[in-house]
């Protein structure tokens, strides 16, 4: 039996709401997306999509309207950071590889970072999200850890290098359900 067109639209709307909405007090659940917007530099002023770690790390209970997104040095953040002083009270942009996702998160946490965004090291990855899971060490991390597509991470780092900037300024998390579709600035290289 076919459903009325209105019922199908209602089901799609409910599904979209379930996929995009989250309760700030609880944070995000597994397989949900979190959005952040780069405010500066202007050439990458887009809304980016990230996914939270599956079974470690904290949640965003606070919205940061303007916070620095600082690329870690070295990019893989598997040990002591050369720019750790700049990561304190900010969010670190880290590259996948060299050690576990949890190890990277702990390094950023130890340097006082509020969260870590781990970009895939496959720079051509513009659609496949990796599920970040706990390693076998039984360690924990308290700060949020997010996975970012490789193309997005590459484009952010490239823009910062081109402008000679040590960090980007971002807002995180961004509630995209409150933004009119025509105002959604999505990265032109990524399909939504």
UniProtKB/TrEMBL annotation:
InterPro entries on file: PA_dom_sf, PA_domain, PRADC1-like_PA
Cellular compartments annotated: Secreted
Stretch forming the signal peptide: 1-27
Main location: secreted
Pfam families (UniProt xref): PA
GO CC annotations, alphabetized: extracellular region
CDD domains to which the protein is assigned, alphabetical: PA_hPAP21_like
Matches recorded under Gene3D superfamilies: 3.50.30.30
Record keywords: Glycoprotein, Secreted, Signal
Keyword set includes Glycoprotein: yes
Keyword flag Signal: yes
Domain PA: 69-153
Biological function: Plays a role in the modulation of physical activity and adiposity.
The protein, known as: Protease-associated domain-containing protein 1
Organism of origin: Phaetusa simplex
Gene symbol of the encoding locus: Pradc1
